[in-house]
Structures are given as structure tokens and as C-alpha cells.
Design goal:
- By secondary structure, the protein is of the alpha/beta class.
- The chain has a single domain, classed as Rossmann fold (3-Layer(aba) Sandwich), CATH 3.40.50.
- 25% of the residues lie in helices and 27% in strands.
- It has a ten-stranded mixed sheet with strand order 1-12-11-10-13-9-2-7-8-14, sandwiched between helices.
- A hairpin with a 4-residue loop joins strand 4 and strand 5.
- Helix 2 crosses helix 5 and helix 3 packs across helix 4.
- The longest helix is centred in the first third of the chain and has 17 residues.
- The chain is globular.
- The chain starts with a strand and ends with a helix.
- 37% of the residues are buried.
Length: 280
């Protein structure tokens, strides 16, 4: 079922199409198949596995680049993380991003989704004018899906989550399909934020030429002091976090169990076992 919903939270005068500016938020995450968890501290040991762009963010990058190709303008990639995250931003450049900014400072460490989204929103205010912010649906190392909508709330702009299709794109608005169990057709005017699912597109593979070009491209690095005038230092990192992980439990894998029934009453035992498990 497809429902029509109009979003009219905010209307702005948009400049020339060539000035169209998309900001895509990406995260540098560890290979989730190889990473280890620090059970004592309740944190992921990010040094235990190589890092890469969060897989869901590849769809966000592709969405941003496709909009740039249709409407003109530029795409800026923004990420918060350790210095190693620069490699993910270079990957984003190879995939069509024009500008890359890394927020990296020990004062950002330990941030929950609230502090992370606030820091990203503060950096977006420093970047200045934008039309659209695109995020992946969620991250494989957090799986909350909260940061994108929280960024929109900090900025006071409308947002649409779980976008699985972009029906139409114009210089002042998008018409998208949001998959919230039921599917909703939504019109949202800029400036706005959307989070996209893996169904929205198939990310392109960068060419060798693009990869080599990205290696030579500049990645801007902003520390906390770079955001002075746009940020409240008490709201970033661990200090600004309102949630903390107290314990991590890694569930053991359940293995199949076999029961051997012997004796003249085996049939009765089998029937009783099936009844206990609810099969009969």
C-alpha cells in the first residue's frame, strides 16, 4: 500500500540549480566480521579490525552523486572519527564526492548518538548553505538509525527516514518513497535531510583513475576548536553523552541437540518430548 503524505515544514528560496549543495554523512567503521568487543569497557575495539565506509553509507553517497549529476552543484562528505577515517573519505571522493571534511579530536571520543549528531550538526552550520543532507539508514557498528534524524532535529529542518526510492528531484524539493512497514509517498522541501535504505540504488564502483585522483585530493581535518562559535563544548564527546553502555554480552551460539531414546517406552517418551516442545 502506498500512502500520499505532504511535508510542508519549511519552504526556502533556492538559488540557481548549479548552486545545489548536498552534504552526505558517512562513518568509518571496522570490518564487523573481524572486529572484537571489549566486554569490560562496553566498547568496540576498533583497532582489532581494518576500517571501511559503513556499507549503508555507500547508498547515501550514490544518492548524493546522482542528484548532483541531475541538478548540478557539489557534494560534500562529512565524517567524525579517528585519523584513520581519512581513508573512507578518500573512498567517497573516488565515488564522486567533491569535498571531504573529517571531524577528528580526542574531545569527540566516547560520543553517543546525541553527542555525535550535535557535533555533526555544528559542523554543518559552519559549512554554511546546503540544500539536502543524505545519510545511510544505519551503521553496522551501532545499528540505531538515530544519528540522521537527530542531526535534522538539531538543525530544525524536516527529515524523511528509510527512503527506498526517489521518484522526482527538483531544485527546491524531492518526492520520495519512505518504507516504514507501509510505504509512504512524501514530498519534502529543502533544506531537508533523508536517510536511505539499500534498496534506493546500487552504488557504483570507482574507476582506477578516480581512486588515484582521490589519493591526491585534500581531506580537510577540523578539530573541536575549528568549530568555535558553532558548538557548545559541554555537549560533545563523552561529556555530552546522555547514554552509556554498562555491559556487553556476546550470546553463545545455540547448537543442535540430539536425544537418543531407548527402551520399550521410547514411543511414549518421543510423544511427551514433542508435546513439551509444542509440536503436538
Amino acid at each position: 500500500m502506498l500512502l500520499n503524505v505532504a511535508v510542508n515544514f519549511l519552504e526556502v528560496e533556492v538559488g540557481a540549480v548549479l548552486d545545489f549543495h548536498v552534504i552526505v554523512l558517512i562513518k568509518h567503521v571496522p570490518d564487523i566480521e573481524k572486529v572484537k568487543f571489549d566486554v569490560e569497557t562496553g566498547r568496540i575495539d576498533r583497532s582489532s579490525a581494518p576500517g571501511e565506509i559503513n556499507p549503508f553509507d555507500l547508498n547515501a553517497i550514490e544518492t548524493a552523486v546522482q542528484l548532483k549529476e541531475k541538478l548540478g552543484g557539489i557534494v560534500t562528505a562529512l565524517s567524525m572519527g579517528p585519523p584513520q577515517a581519512e581513508s573512507s573519505l578518500r573512498d567517497a571522493i573516488a565515488r564522486g564526492v567533491d569535498r571531504a571534511i573529517l571531524l577528528s579530536d580526542h574531545r569527540f571520543a566516547g560520543a553517543d548518538t546525541l553527542a555525535t549528531s550535535y557535533t555533526l550538526a555544528s559542523a554543518i552550520r559552519k559549512i554554511g548553505r546546503y540544500d539536502l543532507i543524505v545519510c545511510g539508514e544505519k551503521t553496522v557498528d551501532g545499528d540505531t538509525g538515530q544519528v540522521g534524524p537527530e542531526v535534522a532535529e538539531h538543525l530544525g529542518i524536516p527529515h524523511v527516514a528509510y527512503v527506498c526510492e526517489i521518484r522526482e528531484s527538483y531544485g527546491d524539493r524531492l518526492i520520495v518513497v519512505s518504507d516504514m512497514g507501509d510505504k509512504f509517498l512524501v514530498e519534502v522541501r529543502f533544506p531537508a535531510l533523508i536517510t536511505v535504505t539499500k534498496d534506493v540504488n546500487t552504488p557504483r564502483l570507482p574507476s582506477l583513475r578516480d581512486i588515484l585522483k582521490a589519493r591526491r585530493s585534500k581531506v580537510e581535518v577540523w578539530d573541536a576548536d575549528s568549530l568555535l562559535g558553532f558548538i557548545d563544548m559541554s555537549r560533545i564527546g563523552l561529556l555530552g553523552s546522555r547514554t552509556q553502555v554498562f555491559k556487553i554480552v556476546i550470546p553463545s551460539e545455540e547448537r543442535r541437540r540430539g536425544i537418543i531414546l531407548k527402551g520399550v517406552d521410547s514411543v511414549n517418551k518421543l510423544i511427551e518430548a514433542l508435546r513439551m516442545e509444542g509440536f503436538i
